[in-house]
Amino acid sequence: MELLVATLAQMALGKDDDGPSRLRFISETIQHAPGLVNARFYRSREPDSYYLILTTWEDEDFWYKAQDRYSPKNLLGGSTGELLLASPEQWLMRYLWGYSRPSAQPAIAAAHIVTVRPDQAERVERSWIEGLRKQVTQPALAFAFLARARNEDSEFIHNHSTLNNNKVTEDSANNYGSNFLNLLSWPGETQRKDFYADQNYQAISGFLSSVGVMRVVVLDPL
Description:
Alpha-Beta Plaits, 8 strands, alpha+beta, globular, eight-stranded antiparallel β-barrel
């Protein structure tokens, strides 16, 4: 099962100009990492000052072997105090839903980072996917996905499973928590406004606000 690693870093005041060179370094470092499927980089729009790095790995075994050298959080961490405001946030996640319209080039994006009450996590997952599926019937989105994070206290599933040629069971691999990431991309501002004005988005946004806390970061793809 593919593993998504989402890394969010907030830049220190006055250090925005140094961010692109750091991201180029990270991109060049990880692009040949064994097991890396793809990497996406985003920069927030003012007044925020964030960078979002999304790396997808073939499975957890590849990530476990690569993380010491290729973890975006580790590659960014050496800059804390000189480039970053605080230590980067990083979540290990599984994809729940995805959408891509190849004819539309993503020009603007937004990351919705949501933490919900644990007793509502399964309900949120089902309702959010249903709402997104309804919205993609309208040609507003260019690219999007919904992902859910692992529990912080769950261990990596790496204990010789590859060497022994054993498959990890679905139950043990899906030990996921109550943190979600919804990345949305649009061809332009008009499509973004139309998406947020849609009654399906209004319904799921109100529901999420009632059961958790949402952070929204407006982004430009890099």
